[in-house]
Design brief:
The complex is a heterodimer of chains A (about 180) and B (about 800).
Chain A (H helix, E strand, L loop, with lengths): L12 H5 L15 H5 L7 E9 L23 E5 L7 E23 L6 H5 L1 E7 L3 E14 L11 E14 L3 E4 L6
Antiparallel strand pairs in A: 1-3, 2-3, 3-4, 3-5, 4-7, 5-6
Chain B lengths: L1 E10 L9 H7 L10 H5 L6 E19 L2 E12 L7 E9 L5 E14 L1 E4 L9 E16 L8 E18 L2 E22 L2 E21 L22 E16 L7 E18 L2 E23 L5 E21 L4 E13 L1 E3 L2 E3 L1 E7 L10 E18 L2 E21 L2 E3 L2 E3 L2 E14 L2 E4 L21 E14 L7 E18 L13 E20 L4 E20 L5 E2 L2 E9 L2 E6 L4 E4 L6 H6 L3 E4 L5 E7 L12 E6 L15 E11 L16 E11 L8 E2 L5 E2 L4 E4 L7 E4 L4 H4 L4 E23 L3 E6 L2 E15 L3
Antiparallel strand pairs in B: 1-2, 2-3, 2-4, 3-5, 3-6, 4-5, 5-7, 7-8, 8-9, 9-10, 10-11, 11-12, 12-13, 13-14, 14-15, 14-18, 15-19, 16-17, 18-19, 19-20, 20-23, 20-24, 21-22, 23-25, 25-26, 26-27, 27-28, 28-29, 28-30, 28-31, 30-35, 31-34, 32-33, 34-37, 35-36, 36-42, 37-42, 38-39, 40-41, 42-43, ...
The chains are: A mainly beta (about 180), B mainly beta (about 800).
């Protein structure tokens, strides 16, 4: 195992933050007692709870959006962007779902030991997001689409759905996500 | 020390009976006063009761106090009628000598005003602190008998009085703020006065009272000085609201000669508050602090006429130590008496070294205020050192402690009463202006403890970032906050402010600064080399039946964070520079009592059975707690200063000291972020923008499930298996064990956590463009617009220590 595999350049920080479940540390061994003894900065938090997006619908009530019990309306959130000035819109549509977990931890700690000797060489402070063992997904879904307009209520609205994703059940997420600066600030 | 009076004039008319000795004492300082002749005095012994009636009118151009040769002058002193400046104030005093040789006074004072036009310090010509006036009508009794609390030649006093029609005002440059329509009942029995060694000791074993301030008013019209109404319109002057309260307390005070240097005064004071209340009234809606108890000790407070650390002449108040605790049993708002819960504060103000510098507790009072506001104003060269405080909040019987709170600072605070004008090039607003001039300050907390004082330290303030709360913050502050009278309607506050911060270091996530074995560098995620420039216009604060309501007319700010660091604030590695710009129009906030109420965590369900059936956990978080409902309306960009944007820059060039230079690296600019309602529904030609981003944040202290993530001992050495649940041990504070299959008894002992329920929703959030910014090549647009629609994001998160 080599810790340098998880070095992240700031330029990809934004992308990394959106990949919370990306298994960057899947091959890492859990910290042993010795490493824990060298953790400075106890404190931090252990979070239990849930996060949901449009679980029962969003705030817009119009011809397109509605509550989730209205079968002829979309109740998810919608995110549209375009990469050309007069181009069409790439859309993540009907985004909704609920994620429940116990044991998402957050703290700042110094890694200066462990990791089969790599920690000593590393010798830096990191933000550690400890992933919860199990995250329960309930009705998690989104749809990738291409659209002629940003708003589905704009005149001339046309949309082509490319694919849709639905997730249900328990997802195992183990290990820690370490975030730290690298490169020239 | 000595006192002088120059150009004094006084008049009194004795109508019946004789002048009582106590009055002679009070008036003895007046050089040209009429003295009672021997014949009159001889009649004192001939009567069992004496009544004195008089109209008291007195004026002095200057009353001076000197300490080690340095003087402070009260100028334009006058005592007389409050309603007619040419008349005296009516006094009637009945004097009776009791069979126990006590001297009993019954007095009545009608419509008296004590005022002075300015307070000036020798050595500070041309500037003054400002003028004060104090109006009152009094009716009361005072009984004095010999034999104080420690025997010997002391005295014992019993006093009771009622004050009505009171006003207490402060005026600078023709603008006034004052407490109006003040009434007060006070009873102090068995007060003793003794000279012990060289200390004059005053012991008050029981003082009870209640008081009420009808209104706190503002006036920018010199013609309305000392009046409750506008002289032209006859309407009441605008009001900040009213106050009322009651108390029962005991106190001990020691007064000794000798200042911090040479002459001066030393004060020591101890008090116990058995019960008290404090209520703020805004158009009859109340914010009430009830069931207040506590105690405090002031040790070695010295009063000198001296110079501050910059050699400026000042009245110096320097403190040895102040410690105490204050408990507010209930904080309630609205007519229904809904409660936020209770608050407890333990505090110790004492000299302490922060960042390698010793901070003391001292205030140096000087004249002048803001230099552009006119010659009158108050300048406080202040230094403070809050060595340690624990602030705890209890709701529905569960407690959270902001542990190890420390604060330090040094700099100037100015106080002026100002009016809406541009004066000497500076913009002023109606109201009481509190200015900051080179104030270097900071605070930090060691962490949160949930449940009890010996609970494990934990984070959790991260969940309050949406409120702009940082667990540690150091800064240099300039600017002002001006508090105007009158809210969104009727009474209340209107705030205008301009704030500049330099060299800011704010923690977003902070580890403890002391884990029990001494101070260590506080690690965290830090925003450093930060400057902030923020402006608020016409923000109203009102207490309503629903809670504390804040409506902001216009607010814009730029926060430029030179480095976002991980590690310590001095040398943590940096992610680069982040600049956040905000521009809001018509945003609102409502702070209301009551937390999340009933919550289904981990699933969706509106009842305990539906929640459980869906795999969730039903939590009844009680009626107390805090909910903050915010509506942030992000306006479309109006200029480079007034817009919502985020710039992230890195790969910057460095200067000769190796410090990054802003605007020399590559930037990513998310530009002109704004909300809208998703269309032009009112036909104005532009999209409506009334919904904004709405966030409801509820804070409770409640039990939660904590699951062990690994086999073996945890960081506290407690052994358990992966998947076991952490269960607290009643009767063993801070103690816990791991249970593989918790029964109902175990579930009742789940650990308490800091529970935050948040819901954020918006109809539409648009980003105009996302650009890459090259220092010489300029902007290159990579995203031509993004729109987020119909979002409703909810989070139920409970924070506990990492086991």
């Amino acid at each position: 195992m080599n810790l340098s595999r998880v070095y992240l350049n700031p330029a990809v920080l934004a992308a990394m933050l959106s990949l919370a479940s990306y298994p960057v540390h899947a091959e890492m061994a859990p910290l042993g007692d010795e490493a824990l003894a060298n953790v400075s900065g106890q404190g931090g938090i252990y979070l239990s709870g849930d996060i949901s997006i449009n679980d029962v619908g969003g705030p817009i009530e119009n011809s397109y959006f509605g509550r989730c019990d209205e079968s002829d309306k979309k109740c998810g959130a919608r995110f549209a962007y375009r990469l050309r000035e007069d181009g069409g819109w790439l859309v993540l549509d009907e985004i909704k779902g609920l994620f429940a977990f116990e044991g998402l931890t957050l703290r700042v700690r110094k890694i200066d030991s462990g990791f089969e000797g790599d920690g000593e060489l590393f010798d830096r402070d990191v933000i550690e997001l400890g992933l919860p063992d199990t995250v329960r997904f309930t009705d998690v879904q989104f749809k990738l689409a291409a659209s002629s307009t940003a708003r589905p209520t704009d005149p001339g609205f046309m949309q082509t759905d490319i694919f849709a994703v639905q997730m249900q059940g328990d997802v195992i997420m183990q290990g820690n996500l370490l975030v730290f600066p690298d490169g020239n600030p | 020390m000595y006192m002088t009076i120059t150009t004094a004039r006084s008049h009194h008319w004795s109508r019946r009976g004789m002048v009582a000795p106590i009055l002679l004492l009070a008036l003895a300082a007046r050089a040209d006063m009429e003295q009672l002749d021997d014949l009159a005095l001889s009649q004192v012994q001939a009567q069992s009761g004496i009544t004195l009636e008089m109209e008291l009118s007195m004026a002095a151009d200057r009353l001076s106090y000197y300490d080690d040769g340095q003087g402070v002058h009260l100028e334009g002193l006058r005592v007389g009628s409050a309603s007619d400046s040419d008349q005296g104030a009516f006094h009637r005093i009945k004097v009776d000598v009791g069979t126990d040789a006590s001297l009993n006074l019954e007095y009545l004072v009608e419509d008296r005003r004590v005022e002075f036009a300015d307070i000036r310090l020798a050595g500070a010509p041309g500037v003054g602190i400002g003028g004060f006036f104090f109006d009152q009508s009094l009716a009361g009794t005072l009984s004095i008998r010999q034999d104080g609390g420690v025997g010997g030649n002391g005295y014992t006093f019993d006093s009771a009085y009622t004050m009505t029609g009171g006003r207490l005002g402060y005026q600078t440059n023709g603008n006034t703020v004052f407490l109006d329509d003040v009434t007060m009942d006070v009873e102090a029995l068995g007060v003793t006065l003794d000279l012990v060694g060289s200390t004059l000791e005053i012991n008050s074993p029981r003082v009870t009272g209640n008081w009420r301030v009808g209104a706190m008013r503002y006036s920018s019209d010199p013609a309305s000085y000392g009046r409750s109404t506008n002289p032209t319109t006859g309407l009441p002057l605008p009001s900040y609201g009213g106050l009322q309260g009651s108390y029962e307390m005991s106190s001990w005070t020691g007064i000794t000669a000798g200042g911090r240097s040479g002459e001066g005064l030393r004060l020591d004071h101890e008090a116990t508050i058995y019960t008290a209340s404090f209520i703020y009234l805004d158009d009859d809606s109340a914010l009430a602090f009830r069931d207040i108890t506590g105690e405090y000790r002031i040790h070695d407070l010295r009063v000198d006429v001296d110079q501050d650390w910059s050699g400026r002449p000042a009245v110096a108040l320097t403190l040895g130590k102040l410690e105490g605790n204050l408990n507010i049993g209930a904080i309630e708002v609205g007519s229904s008496g809904a409660s936020f819960g209770s608050v407890n504060l333990n505090f110790l103000l004492e000299d302490q070294v922060f960042n390698g510098r010793t901070y003391r507790n001292a205030v140096y009072l000087q004249g002048g205020g803001h230099p552009d506001a006119g010659p009158q104003g108050l300048r406080l060269a202040a230094e403070w050192s809050l060595r340690l405080a624990d602030l705890s909040y209890t709701e529905d019987g569960n407690r959270i402690i902001f542990s190890g709170l420390q604060s330090w600072g040094r700099g100037d605070v100015t106080v002026n009463v100002t009016r809406n004008e541009v004066r000497n090039g500076t913009r002023f607003y109606d109201g009481l202006r509190i200015g900051f001039d080179g104030l270097e300050a900071g605070y930090r907390i060691n962490g949160l403890r949930v449940g009890s004082d010996d609970a494990q330290l934990q984070g959790g303030t991260e969940l309050l970032l949406a409120l702009g709360f940082y667990p540690a913050y150091e800064f240099e502050l300039d600017g002002h906050v001006t508090l105007g009278a009158g809210g969104a309607s009727g009474e209340g506050l209107t705030v205008n402010s301009d704030i500049q911060i330099r060299n800011g270091k704010a923690a977003v996530i902070a580890a403890p600064y002391n884990e029990g074995v001494g101070e260590i560098p506080q690690k965290g995620l830090w925003l450093t080399e930060m400057t902030y420039d923020g402006h608020i216009r016409d923000m109203t604060l009102d207490v309503t039946d629903g809670g504390l309501a804040i409506e902001t007319g216009e607010a814009w700010s730029t926060m430029d964070i030179g480095n976002v660091r991980v590690g310590t604030k001095e040398d943590g590695a940096s992610f680069g520079r982040v600049q956040l710009q905000k521009y809001e129009l018509g945003s609102t906030t409502l702070v209301k009592p009551g937390g999340a109420g009933d919550v289904c965590v981990g699933a969706t369900g509106s009842s305990a059975s539906a929640c459980g059936a869906a795999g969730g956990q039903w939590e009844e978080r009680g009626s107390e707690g805090v909910t903050i409902a915010m509506k942030n309306i992000l306006a479309r960009g109006e200029s480079n200063n007034k817009k919502n944007a985020i710039l992230w820059e890195n790969n910057r060039g460095v200067d000769g000291r190796g410090q990054p230079i802003n605007n020399t690296g590559m930037g990513l600019l998310v530009d002109d972020i704004h909300t809208s309602d998703g269309g032009d529904f009112n036909g104005s030609g532009v999209d409506d923008n009334t919904y904004g981003i709405r966030t409801d944040l509820s804070v409770d202290v409640y039990q939660t499930r904590v699951i062990k993530k690994t086999n073996g001992p945890d960081s506290q050495g407690i052994v358990g298996n992966r998947g076991d649940e952490k269960i607290m041990m009643p009767g063993n504070p801070g103690g816990y064990r791991y249970v593989s299959a918790p029964g109902p008894g175990d579930v009742a002992n789940r650990p308490l956590g800091f529970a935050v329920k948040a819901e954020t929703r918006f109809k539409e959030l648009s980003i105009n463009n996302i650009d890459l910014v090259h220092p010489t090549g300029g902007h290159q647009t990579v995203v031509y617009g993004a729109k987020l629609q119909n979002f409703d994001i909810r989070a139920n998160l409970t924070a506990t220590p990492i086991p």
